[in-house]
Amino acid sequence: MITGTSAWSGDFAESAISTDLKYADGKPYSDLPVFMICVDVTLSYPEGAVGYTTEAGGSALKGGSGAAGVAAINWLFDQYYATYFKSGSDAQKWAFQYAVWEIGNDYNGSAGSISATSGLSHPFDDGYKSAEPEFIAAYQAMYQAMTTTLPTLSGAYRSKTYTIDLFNSADPTYQSMVALVEKAPSSPVVTTPTPVPSLGVAGMVGLTGMLSLFAVGGLSRKRQLKKMS
Q1: First vs last Cα of the chain: how many Å apart?
Q2: Domain coordinates in residue numbering, the chain
Q3: How confident is the model at residue 196 (pLDDT cuts 50, 70, 90)?
Q4: Rounded to whole angstroms, what are the CA distances from 63 to 22, 117, 128?
Q5: Environment class of 166 (CB within 10 Å of its CB; exposed 0-12, middle 13-18, buried 19+)
Q6: pTM, to two decimals
């Protein structure tokens, strides 16, 4: 569980930003601002004091896509966040928001579940930016890419460009969020066992030589004993 405060990010989307999210022991969730965008089209997002369960995975997605949906979110941000959201127009940002909602609400792991006209996400019916050419072009590009790419995308796919998490709100009246930190995810620490020293070629030659000396020494002593007897 993390707590802190969040405020509207200023973008044309249901998105927020926080700079003070922290765990119960006081450890910061991130050393950089955390951008959050809504993943549930049926609920609003909180501002002010917030609390989230981190690493919520597929439980933050309503469509039942599970690991496939988590991979799809990572793929979507890798492909389109920089172009359509961070550097995009208001219409393109709103199209990106609808692509997130499509994955979060309707995608169940199959191509047939991705639809611009059925399900909970209706991108062309909201009356905000849906009639603008930039919205139409951006959403159609993402829609086409989702229908062709997501059904065969590995469920293990994760972004190597951004640190991406899925949050469940501690208050169930608010929606779940995709959380993004603009830095590559940390690599897991892998403990490498200390190798057991082994004899190389040189060591084997040395050992063989020592054994030969012992053998010769033993034979010499036997010969001396025979001469003395």
Answers
A1: 89
A2: 2-181, 199-229
A3: low
A4: 29, 15, 24
A5: buried
A6: 0.81
Distance CA 111, CA 190 (A): 37
Q: Strands 48-53, 163-169: parallel, antiparallel or unpaired by DSSP?
A: antiparallel
Dihedral angle, C-alpha 27, 73, 110, 96, nearest 10 °: 140
DSSP state of 35: E
Tokens of 173: 């009246």
H helices then E strands: how many in the chain? 4, 7
In a 13 Å sphere around the CA of 3, the CA atoms on its Cβ side amount to 6
Instruction: Quote the CA–CA distance of 39 and 65 in Å, as a whole number.
Output: 13
Note the residue count of the chain. Answer: 229
The model's pLDDT over 125-168, given as tens digits with 9 standing for 90+, comes to 887 899 999 999 999 999 999 999 999 999 999 999 999 999 99
